[in-house]
Amino acid sequence: MSDRPIRAFSELRVGDVDVAGGKGANLGELTAAGLPVPPGFVITGQVFLDALDEAGVRQELRSLSTAVHADDPQDLGATAERMQHLV
User: Fold this and answer.
1) Closest of 48, 54, 41 to residue 11, by C-alpha
2) Host H or E run for residue 80
3) From first to last of its 87 residues, what are the pLDDT tens digits of the chain?
4) Are 43 and 6 in contact (CB under 8 A)?
5) Contact 37, 75 (CB under 8 A)
6) Cβ-count burial of 83 within 10 angstroms (0-12 exposed, 13-18 middle, 19+ buried)?
7) 34, 8 Cβ separation under 8 angstroms
């Protein structure tokens, strides 16, 4: 089931963090508990990474994240803006 690119909240549980991320897995748990969660879905992490590869930006994002000076607010802001633009 984890090879499907889209997963409904109702299909997810806490064990699906590696597929759906923490938020998606937690929304699945809340849905299963019967709490009032609007119907929804997640696009799996692998599909997101595949899209970055297809767009040719994954390596640039990786390079930007390792080169940023986190203690420099201007560099951090500029790098974050560049990364957002790429995504």
Assistant:
1) 41
2) helix 73-86
3) 447 899 999 999 999 999 999 999 999 999 999 999 999 999 998 999 999 999 999 999 999 999 999 999 999 999 999 999 999
4) yes
5) no
6) middle
7) no
pTM of the prediction? 0.70
SS3 56: coil
Residue 74 tokens, joined: 């201007």
SS3 34: coil
Closest CA to 53 of 45, 69, 41: 45
CA geometry: angle at 13 spanning 12 and 17, to 5°?
90
Identify which of 23, 30, 26, 28 has the alpha carbon closest to the alpha carbon of residue 1: 28
Residue 20 CB coordination number (10 Å)? 24
Among 56, 55, 73, 75, residue whose Cα is nearest residue 64: 75
